[in-house]
Amino acid sequence: MASSFKLRSFLLFVIALVPIGIALQRCSPSKDSNKSISQINLEGYRISEGDVALFPGDGTFAKVQGMEAYGKGDFVIAETLFEQSLQQRPNDPEALIYKNNAKNQIKNDTNGKNKSPSLKLAVSIPGETADGNGSREILRGVAQAQDEINRAGGINNRSLSIVIGTDNNDIKIAPKVAASFVSQSEILGVIGHVASSSTLATVETYTEGKLVAISPISSAVQLSNKSPYIFRTVPSDSMAARSLVDYTVNTLKRKKAVAYFNSKSDYSKSLKGEFSTAILSEGGEVIAEYDLSANNFDAQESLTAAKRQGADVIMLASDTDRLDRALQVVRLNEAQLPVLGGDDVYSPRTLEITRATGQNMVVAVPWHILSTTSKMFAARSRKLWGGDVNWRTVTAYDATQALIAALQRNDITRTGIKNALTAPGFSAAGASSPVSFLASGDRTAIIQLVKIVKGSRSNYGYDFMPIELTP
Questions:
Q1: Which of 10, 57, 87, 396 could form a disulfide with 216 if both were Cys (CB 3.0 to 4.6 A apart)?
Q2: CA torsion angle for 62, 67, 71, 73 (degrees, to 10)?
Q3: CATH of the domain at 347
Q4: Which helix (H) or strand (E) element contains residue 319?
Q5: Which positions ≥6 away from 102 have C-beta within 8 Å?
Q6: Whether residue 320 sits in one domain with residue 243
Q7: Rounded to whole angstroms, how far apart are CA atoms 153 and 94?
Q8: Which uninterrupted H or E stretch holds 35?
Q9: C-beta of residue 379 within 8 angstroms of C-beta of residue 144
Q10: How buried is 419 (Cβ within 10 angstroms: 0-12 exposed, 13-18 middle, 19+ buried)?
Q11: 312 falls within a domain
C-alpha cells in the first residue's frame, strides 16, 4: 500500500514537470544569443538582467534553466525556477535579483497597456574573477533593498528592476560598463563602482551621460568633489585614517608607524597618504613605507628594517589584491607591534591566515553587525540570507536606498535623481543610520573600529568585534 502511494506520488511529480520541461526546450538559447554573450565576454565584461550567469559556480539546475527561460521571454517559468533555486541556495543574491526582475517583467504589459512599468537601476561589481565574495556581498545589499521595496508596493506603485554588470576592477573595462549603462535610457541610477580606480575611470562617462553613480566601496579622497553625479555611501579614507590615528596616539600611545601599501591601487595610496598626514598632525610620523606590489618586496626584511628604525606600530593600507602579502607581515610580526588596517583588511581571509598572530589588530570599517545601531537590519538580513552580512552589504544597501528615496520624489529622470540627492535636507533610511550627502558627494557617516579577538563567530577561532565590546 505504501509503495503504491509512493509510486503514484512520483508519477504525479513527473507529470507536473512535463509542461515546464517542454517550455524549457522551447526557450533554450539560440545561436545568436550565445554569440552576443560571447562578444560581451570578449570585451571583458558581462551585463545581465536575468539571462546570463555572472557567477557560474553558484548555479543550481533550476537557476540555469531559469536564465534560459528569461532569455526567451518566458518570465513566468523563469520566476518559478529562480524561486526553486533560492529554496536550495537562499544566500544567492543573483538569483533573488533575477527572480524579482522576472516578476517585474510579468507585471509589465508587453502590449504597451501598462502605464506603470518597473523602474530600473544598475549595479557594477568586480565579478567572479576579480573579487567573487566581495561581489556577492554587494549584490546582497542591492537585492535586499530591491526585495523590500517591491514587497512594500514599489516606488509610487512601480516596482524596481536591477541590471548587473561586471567590470573586473579594471580601469579599462569599467568605462565600457559605464558607457553601456549610460546608453540604456531606462537606467536611472547606478550602484558602483567598487575599486576607487574603477570609479575614478568612469567619472567622465557618468557626468556626460548625466547618470548618477553611488559607490558603496570607493573611499579614495580623490573622488570628493569630482563630479555632481558621483556619490558614495562609504566614508572617505580621510575619516578612516583620522579614526586610526586617534586610536594610535590616544589609546596605544604610539607615534612612529611603518606603512604597507600598494602603489598600483588608488585606494591604498589614498589611505596611506591620509594616515601619514593625520599622524603628522598629531606629532607622529610614518618613518618607513613599503610597496606591497614591488617585485623585490620582502616581508621579513621590511619588518626588521622598520623595527630597527624605531617603528612602534604597523599600518596596513593594503587593498584586496595585495592582502596576502600584508598578512605575511602580520604573521612575521607575531603580535609584537600593534597592527592597524583599512577596510580591505576586514576579511575572513585575515582571520584565516593570521589566527593568533592577528589578535588585537584594529581595523577601520563603516559598519559592524554587532554595533548597537545594527540590530534591526542584522535581524532582517539574517532572515533573508540565512546568515550574517558585513559592511559591504550595508553600504550597497544604503546606496540603493538613496536612489530609491530620490526616485520617490516624483521627478523620475536622471537629472531629477541628481537634484534630489543634492537637495537640502535629503535623507534616506539606511541600514543603521540615515543616508545623506555633503556637497562633495561624500556621505555624512562615522567610522567603526573593530578588533580581532578570540571568538566563535567565524570558523577560525578569532573574530572582528566592535572595539567598545572588547576588553
A1: 396
A2: 50
A3: 3.40.50.2300
A4: none
A5: 50, 66, 70, 75, 76, 78, 79, 82
A6: yes
A7: 21
A8: helix 31-42
A9: no
A10: middle
A11: yes
Alpha helix (H) ranges present in 184-226? 196-208
Contact status, residue 160 vs residue 408, Cβ threshold 8 Å: no
Specify the 3-state DSSP secondary structure of 461.
coil
Cell of 228: 555632481
- Kindly list the distances between the CA atom of residue 469 and the CA atoms of 369, 371, 448, in Å, as whole numbers in the listed order: 12, 9, 12
Q: Which three cell numbers stand for residue 74?
A: 518566458
Residue range(s) defining the domain that contains residue 251: 237-365+448-469
- Residue with C-alpha cell 540604456? 184
Same-domain status, 226 and 338: no
Place of cell 609584537: 336
Q: What are the residues whose beta carbons fall under 8 Å from the beta carbon of 266, sequence distance 6 or more?
A: 195, 196, 197, 200, 220, 222
Angle between helices 128-151 and 93-107 (to 10 degrees): 50
In whole angstroms, what is the distance from residue 206 CA to residue 212 CA? 7
Residue 16, H or E segment: helix 2-26
- pLDDT tens by residue, the chain, 471 residues: 444 433 344 333 333 343 333 333 323 333 233 333 333 454 678 999 999 999 988 889 999 999 999 999 999 999 999 999 999 999 999 999 999 999 999 988 554 556 678 999 999 999 998 899 999 999 999 999 999 999 999 999 999 999 999 999 999 999 999 999 999 999 999 999 999 999 999 999 999 999 999 999 999 999 999 999 999 999 999 999 999 999 999 999 999 999 999 999 999 999 999 999 999 999 999 999 999 999 999 999 999 999 999 999 999 999 999 999 999 999 999 999 999 999 999 999 999 999 999 999 999 999 999 988 899 999 999 999 999 999 999 999 999 999 999 999 978 999 999 999 999 999 999 999 999 999 999 998 889 999 999 999 999 999 999 999 888
Task: Quote the cell numbers at residue 257.
Answer: 608607524
According to DSSP, the β-strands at 230-232 and 213-215 are: parallel
Task: Report the C-alpha gap between 394 and 373 in whole angstroms.
Answer: 12
